[in-house]
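Hi support team,

I've been running sequence recovery on a batch of backbones for a student project. Most finish fine, but this one hangs at about 90% for roughly twenty minutes before it completes. I'm not sure whether the input is malformed or the queue is just slow. I've pasted the structure tokens below so you can try to reproduce it. Let me know if you need the job ID as well.

Thanks,
M.K.
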């Protein structure tokens, strides 16, 4: 259950983190590098990853300064991945504003992503407890995200990809970052490997649920709510939870739909996909799959002490019920 008090706490955490990121102490010069960095962090982001890290750290009683540095680090790392993803996917909108390569150019966006990546490492190096182990886990997670993105690109237009392949990719691309957000606070609190392993599983489970849900929202939401371009995965012929489920449940009909809709304007194609996914039962089945992973994530939280566990269950439900 997500209470009004919990929603208020989330809003306060988001506001605090947003302020820290929007006032991040970047130098003024050179403008070519630092203006885009400030621009990226000024977007209307949800800050879900540093919120998750903060809630987990509070459950374990982690030092506030260590928690602040780690929260900033994971959000800087996340924004690095978004800037470079937007280049690779040629997306035009992110966090309610033009993407960096859309506002400037690809060269500027590449350098901005590099700068965010380095700032993320500078931030994580400032934690004082278990610094070496935290840094190693941070790097492992960052590389896992790159591996996931590589699979995502490899899978484009590949009609042999299965749901299991997709879930493996998602565990890397989305789950690894969310795992960082719960494993790092555990390490800062000197928890053992058993606890860390269980929390990594939480990250993978909530990550799979989140990515499946994101695939659904990219088709069934709208650009204003999402704050980013819709349909870019469709244009790139990426393998999403919906398209893979369509191939599994109604392969012949899905193939016919793809042939009929080839060359259509994106808005028209999206409308047709919404109808197809709902009428074929693909939407319902894919939504149920996301629900299962969110339920698994809740079960993984048994290693979190109360009352922090209750807040993380509420956070999971908060994510599950999002509409953007």
């Amino acid at each position: 259950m997500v209470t009004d008090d919990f929603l208020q706490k989330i809003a306060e955490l988001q506001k605090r983190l947003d302020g820290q990121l929007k006032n991040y102490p970047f130098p003024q010069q050179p403008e070519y590098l630092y203006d885009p960095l400030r621009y990226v962090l000024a977007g209307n982001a949800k800050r879900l990853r540093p919120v998750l890290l903060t809630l987990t750290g509070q459950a374990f009683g982690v030092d506030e300064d260590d928690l602040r540095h780690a929260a900033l680090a994971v959000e800087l790392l996340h924004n690095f991945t978004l800037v470079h993803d937007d280049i690779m996917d040629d997306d035009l909108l992110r966090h309610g504003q033009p993407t960096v390569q859309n506002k400037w150019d690809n060269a500027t966006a590449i350098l901005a992503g590099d700068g965010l990546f380095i700032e993320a490492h500078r931030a994580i190096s400032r934690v004082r407890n278990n610094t070496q182990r935290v840094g190693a886990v941070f790097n492992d997670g960052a590389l896992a995200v790159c591996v996931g993105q590589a699979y995502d690109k490899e899978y484009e237009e590949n009609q042999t990809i299965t749901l299991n392949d997709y879930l493996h990719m998602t565990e890397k691309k989305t789950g690894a970052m969310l795992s960082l957000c719960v494993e790092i606070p555990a390490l800062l609190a000197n928890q053992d490997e058993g606890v860390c392993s269980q929390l990594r599983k939480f990250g993978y489970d909530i990550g799979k649920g989140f990515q499946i849900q994101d695939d659904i929202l990219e088709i069934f939401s709208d650009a204003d709510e999402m704050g980013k371009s819709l349909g870019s995965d469709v244009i790139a012929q990426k393998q999403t939870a919906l398209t893979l489920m369509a191939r599994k449940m109604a392969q012949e009909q899905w193939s016919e739909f793809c042939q009929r809709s080839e060359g259509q304007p994106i808005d028209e194609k999206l409308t047709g996909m919404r109808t197809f996914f709902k009428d074929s039962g693909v939407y319902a089945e894919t939504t149920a799959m996301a629900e299962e992973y969110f339920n698994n994530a809740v079960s993984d939280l048994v290693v979190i002490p109360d009352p922090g566990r209750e807040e993380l269950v509420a956070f999971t439900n908060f994510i599950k019920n999002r509409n953007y």
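--
Follow-up from support: It reproduced on our side and the slowdown came from queue contention, not your input. The chain has one domain: 4-320. No action needed from you.
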